[in-house]
Amino acid sequence: MTQNENSTAPIVRMEKVNKHFGSLHVLQDIDLEVATGEVVVVIGASGSGKSTLIRCINGLEEFQDGHIEVDGNELTPHGKSGKALQKIRTEVGMVFQQFNLFPHLSVLDNVILAPMKVRGWSRADAVETAQRLLERVGISDQAAKYPSQLSGGQQQRVALARALAMEPRLMLFDEPTSALDPEMIGEVLDAMRELAREGMTMIIVTHEMGFAREVADRVIYIHKGEIAEEAPPEKIFDTPEDERTRSFLARVL
Ligand code: ADP
Ligand code: MG
């Protein structure tokens, strides 16, 4: 683990979080702590609550009871978090399955928008940072193009650069490669691998089990809204203890 030794408090703390969509109990007593610098991979069947779980962490979904604390900011049930939610939104970056870039803005403008609007950076400072980040994800030559002119893999790398431009303390990924053609998956995973190596705290929902095994400090298996098992990757993939984990892995590996 590339954990920051100065900081022992977890950056994410979820306690007994419950969420319902109508009669569907989609998250059940979720307890989860994530340490600074830790890479946590969330796996589980479609519909098990993986997206809902990570969307709760940055307040994209409300929950009905329990506590969620992100870097000392507390989210309260029923979406009444006010300032804490704003704070969390500026500190947590997210990359979605569908890249969600602004189609009418160039790549460069996609990346500089939030730092200028939310952080109040000058255009010159934002552009300098954006260029560095686009270089880092290998698309500095695409800065003037529009999203529709890029491949899926390139668009997702722009989305990553855009999230990083806010200097997030935590990055959330929701199936970042699921919408990509197979030949483009590697370039996005490479960029994420590099980020993990640099010590970024990451929570990643993915079906890329090889990647999970390689980068995760811890893997969490969600079954019908519950954390059924969590363990280091070698443990969960090679000797899973829970019958539900075993049966899921037998289907996907
Ligand atoms: P996963 O990401 O693991 O596929 P989700 O978190 O997206 O699962 O969804 C978990 C369950 O909640 C699914 O049964 C899904 O249909 C349901 N669900 C997700 N979003 C909503 C919503 N906005 N309204 C009602 N049900 C939802
Ligand atoms: Mg999902």
Question: Brief description of this entry?
Answer:
The chain has 253 residues and is an alpha/beta fold. It has helices spanning 50-57, 83-91, 107-117, 123-136, 152-164, 182-197, 209-215, 233-238, 243-252, and strands at 12-21, 24-34, 39-43, 65-70, 73-75, 92-95, 170-174, 202-205, 218-223, 226-231. The two termini are 25 Å apart.
Helix content: 25-40%
Strand content: 15-25%
Regions with little confidence, pLDDT below 50 for 5+ residues: 1-5
Instruction: Find the count of extended strands (DSSP E, 2+ residues).
Output: 10
Rg for CA atoms: 18 Å
- Please write the string of helix (H) and strand (E) elements: EEEHEEHEHHHEHEHEEHH
Number of helices: 9
Shape: globular
Order the strands across the largest sheet as they lie in space.
Answer: 6-7-8-3-9-10
Largest sheet: 6 strands, mixed
Intertermini distance: 25 Å
Bound compounds, each kind once, are: adenosine-5'-diphosphate, magnesium ion
Q: Kindly report the average pLDDT value.
A: 95
The computed structural class is: alpha/beta
Structural overview:
With 253 residues, the protein is α/β, with parallel strands linked by helices. Helix content is 37%, strand content 24%. It is built from nine helices and ten strands. The protein has helices spanning 50-57, 83-91, 107-117, 123-136, 152-164, 182-197, 209-215, 233-238, 243-252, and strands at residues 12-21, 24-34, 39-43, 65-70, 73-75, 92-95, 170-174, 202-205, 218-223, 226-231. It has a six-stranded mixed beta sheet with strand order 6-7-8-3-9-10, with helices on both faces. A hairpin with a 2-residue loop joins β1 (12-21) and β2. α4 (123-136) packs across α5. The longest helix has 16 residues, at 182-197. 42% of the residues are buried. The model is unreliable at 1-5 (pLDDT under 50). Bound molecules: adenosine-5'-diphosphate and magnesium ion.
